[in-house]
Amino acid sequence: MRARDLARPYPAVSADDDCVEAARLLVHEWLPALLVVDRDGQPHAIEPAAQIIRTLVPRYVLEARVRRGRRPVRRQRPPGGR
User: Fold this and answer.
1) Global pTM?
2) Is residue 32, in this structure, part of any structural domain at all?
3) pLDDT digits 0-9 by tens, 42-53
4) Is the residue at 76 inside a domain?
């Protein structure tokens, strides 16, 4: 048995494709990563889902502490502090 015997078609995005559309494909297909191809259709990179999400989601959202669907907890300012 060879690797080609195990291979199956895998969705790919072009390096020029919109990142939001790529994320939609990722979510719609339940993919762990996306295959990024160059203009010639040759593999260029494999981007993990977590990296794509970190790129699209604002940093303050990623850093917010969320407790079981509740709003993010705001940090209390120390007395007299800014």
Assistant:
1) 0.64
2) yes
3) 999 999 998 988
4) no
